[in-house]
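Chapter summary example: a protein plus flavin-adenine dinucleotide.
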Amino acid sequence: MHNITILGSGFAALTAVKQIRKQTPSAKITLISPEAEMIYYPSLIWVPTGGRSGDELRINLTRFFSRMGVTHVRANVTGISNQGRTVHTNVGDYHNDGLIIGSGGRFMKKLPGIEHAIALCEGIPAAQAIRDRIQQMRNTGGGTIAFGFASNPNEPAAMRGGPMFELLFGLDTWMRSEGIRNLFNFVFFAPAQRPGQRLGDKAVDRILTLMKEKDIRTHLGHKMVRFEANKVVTEGGEFNADLILFMPGMTGPAWADNTEHVTLSAGGFLPANEYCQVQGLEKTYVAGDAGSYPGPDWLPKQAHMADLQAVTAANNLTAELAQRNVREKFKAELVCIMDMHNKATLVWRDEKRSFMLPCRLLHWAKIAFEWWYLRDYRR
Ligand SMILES: Cc1cc2nc3c(=O)[nH]c(=O)nc-3n(C[C@H](O)[C@H](O)[C@H](O)COP(=O)(O)OP(=O)(O)OC[C@H]3O[C@@H](n4cnc5c(N)ncnc54)[C@H](O)[C@@H]3O)c2cc1C
């Protein structure tokens, strides 16, 4: 019976659990994460407008783990040694025959004054803080909200812009429906001249046109310098903002530095090949935001991509442990339903094609998808 360890309890890790169970019903699975819970990030965009409470997006995994025969270890990983066979945590060491890393990425906090911005990517408390601050501004006559995102300068693909567009257009639609949009100025800023380029040229054109139509000012193409309590400062000028919403560039897990035999990617991620194997370790795979992978320059750091990589990692690891000579490559695919509160646009891209489909029904499809995706973990 193989002893497989999985790190994290997010999209990649849980998909890996399901796939390993499918491939090897008898494997012993140990999953290490700080809590037996999953945070469903894609719906955080609805917390500031009251569409979700926040805690609805925190999924208790106790029943899922028991159904899947998973032993959960409540701990933080601190490093890996012994070619991947030993995982170090704050509560002790764990040994394995095969390892899948799905412990996600981190957001860079190097920009001076970053404490003056709220980063939605930090999870439920950040989304609730945005909701409360907007309510407070509404009660005191409104103000200026700045929305922006940046990438990791050493690994430009390590960014997450989509949710900031969703937040921007979602808040615009919601405020119009509440009759309070006239109380607020919106400014969108990014170091890139054409933010969101990974979504494709057509998508960026559409986003920039929508910003004009919706009276959203832009401040684009200027490197960020710092935030102040009520100010965004860039190399191309500065502007005042009463609330700054910013998604920083991403980097790899904090513990990754403490991994023997691995040279991290330029952006600080675990380096993987197209089979999701971690370079430098044995029988060790990575899926999702924790890794740096070969692929097109638009390869997204997305839940959908994390799921595709987790299936590949689980298939390859179980084949390797069973000494079967099968190696699967992960498929590069960007699928994103960009929500605007009452309608949405599907952006889809793979190696051959890309398209965009705006449609009112897609807003409801995003809600239905949340239910469909989580049903396995909630029951
Ligand atoms: C606001 C927002 C909206 C988004 N919208 C979408 C969307 O619409 N569509 C889409 O496809 N993607 C979306 N994403 C991106 C998506 O959520 C991520 O790409 C996805 O969560 C990555 O999955 P993961 O499993 O790699 O990491 P995560 O989901 O971040 O999971 C990491 C896991 O590792 C655990 N962990 C962390 N540190 C340690 C440690 N030291 N030891 C052990 N465990 C640890 C964490 O607790 C967590 O359980 C969105 C992200 C945000 C922030």
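Key point: The chain has two domains: 3-105+252-321, 108-248.
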